Amino acid sequence: VCDELKEMPSKSIKFGLVLAQKDYSPIIRHFGLQLLEHCIKYRWNDLTPEEKNRMKKSALELISTGTQGILVEEHHIKDAVSRITVEILKRDWPQLWATLLKDLEILSRLG
């Protein structure tokens, strides 16, 4: 079932984002983040522009509010969130994500 889900990018995004929420256990969150990363790495070109924009927005939301405090959050969760952002960066920045640096600057001010 998990491998089948990876082959459906729209569902991978939907379920990945739900499972990655910080209310769940680290194991469930890690699986959700893996779904998102797999979708970005292997199915990015299959996504619609709207889905890609949703992923970009969601990546920034994961950075800003999707993790526990920096001293509390498990390392593998922080690592997975950063990998998701980097994978999107590799594919869309700077041409298709011109606001990234400004977005990250705003996030850095929020703490």
TrEMBL record:
Query: What SUPFAM superfamilies does its record include?
Result: ARM repeat
Taxonomy, superkingdom = Eukaryota
Task: Name all Importin N-terminal domain ranges.
Answer: 18-65
**Sorted alphabetically, which Pfam families does this protein's record hold?**
IBN_N (PF03810)
Quick one: a GO cellular component term? RNA nuclear export complex
What InterPro entries has UniProt attached to this entry? ARM-like, ARM-type_fold, Importin-beta_N, XPO1/5
Gene3D superfamilies membership:
Leucine-rich Repeat Variant (1.25.10.10)
Q: Alphabetically, which GO biological process terms does the record hold? A: protein export from nucleus; RNA export from nucleus
Q: Which GO terms describe its molecular function?
A: nuclear export signal receptor activity; RNA binding; small GTPase binding
What PANTHER family does the entry give? EXPORTIN 1/5, EXPORTIN-5
The UniProt family comment states: Belongs to the exportin family.
Protein name (record): Importin N-terminal domain-containing protein
Q: In which organism is this protein found?
A: Octopus bimaculoides
Taxonomy, top ranks, is:
Eukaryota, Metazoa, Spiralia, Lophotrochozoa, Mollusca
